[in-house]
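Please, structure for the following, as tokens.
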Amino acid sequence: MISYERSLEERGLLLVLSGPSGVGKNSIIDALRREDPRRYHSVSMTTRQPRRDEEDGVSYIFTTREQFEKLIRCGEILEYDTYCGEYYGTPRAPIDRMVRQNVDILLDLTVKGALELKRNCPDAVIIFITASTEAALRERLLKRGTESAGEIDKRLETAREELARMNLFDYWVVNDVIEDAAANVSAIMRAEKRRTLRFFVDECDL
């Protein structure tokens, strides 16, 4: 029998924001953390060498290829991908620990990474962030000033492919105004933390 006290034990929420490049996922995460500084922006693990201005455990968790592949084999990486021959991924251990400590964890992942993490951690909440129109997304990318016209066209093509997978996510939120999008995500977080199922899940299986 589950005790009254045990049934009301709260756990942290694992929340993943995903969507096209340039849609403002990190801006939403920044707004969510300003609203509640206890929320934690998860740090990815990588096998690439740290840059001069990067701090281990803050910018990334830096590790060796051998150790990363060992963690994959042991099921200790919730999602991962490779870029320029180096691994990038989300380690399980710190996520498990903070969820048990009732810390809400925020992640910014690719669509592929978000869906992989959801398979490994069904209790996670994955939200697809999108712009209201393709023209609005193009304008965002142009304002960044970091890509050529050709690169922007490629990103928009990828965005169309990602949009076709939006139905695989738990929620979707339009980000035209950062404050409004962050408020919508925050409302989702509050509702998810009140779901009765969360009081009876021991791990994020996790």
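The mean pLDDT is 89. The longest strand covers residues 77-83.
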